[in-house]
Design a protein that fits this description.
Layout: E1 16-18, H1 23-32, E2 38-42, E3 48-53, H2 54-63, H3 67-72, E4 85-87, H4 92-100, E5 111-115, E6 118-123, H5 125-130, H6 138-145
Parallel strand pairs: 1-2, 4-5
Antiparallel strand pairs: 2-3, 5-6
């Protein structure tokens, strides 16, 4: 029986662009792929070099007094290093744990997922959280701890 990834079911397609492309291209990709949450910025051979997170990118653009100038800049000037890259066959709990261990500003950032040498997609933290088992009701926790009568 072939091993199937638990992550594959919640993986979102992620647009990709090269380091030297203008930020205006990133803005266009965001409107074309609104559910992705990020853009993977890749080097010449397609390896992840950085990430553009939609909400942070739009915040920078709208806070700027010179949006036109920023949109002409290469995307490498606006990207951040990918804060988490996971393998497609990783356990969702493990990926979520690594995501929660990131700096608090980056904890909700999407996770790039690799299948071998290629980017398979991106994971939203909220999607990973949905895979977690629901916490037991308080009464069950008390019984397990020996607190109830």
């Amino acid at each position: 029986m072939a091993y199937t990834s638990k992550l594959k079911g919640i993986l979102r397609p992620v647009p990709q662009m090269e380091l030297s492309e203008p930020c205006s291209q990133a803005e266009a990709l965001m409107f074309r792929y609104p559910d992705a949450g990020c853009i993977a910025v890749v080097d010449r051979v397609g390896r992840p070099a950085g990430i553009i997170v939609y909400n942070r990118f739009f915040h920078l653009l709208t806070a700027s007094r010179n949006m036109g100038y920023l949109l002409r800049q290469p995307v490498q000037n606006m990207m951040s290093a990918p804060s988490l890259v996971a393998d497609l066959h990783a356990e969702p709990e493990e990926v979520l744990q690594h995501a929660e261990n990131r700096h608090k500003i980056l904890r909700r950032d999407p996770v790039l997922v690799m299948e071998g040498e290629r980017i398979a997609g991106a994971l939203q933290i909220s999607d990973l959280e949905l895979l977690q088992p629901a916490p037991a009701p308080a009464r069950d926790r008390e019984q397990a701890a020996g607190l109830s009568r």
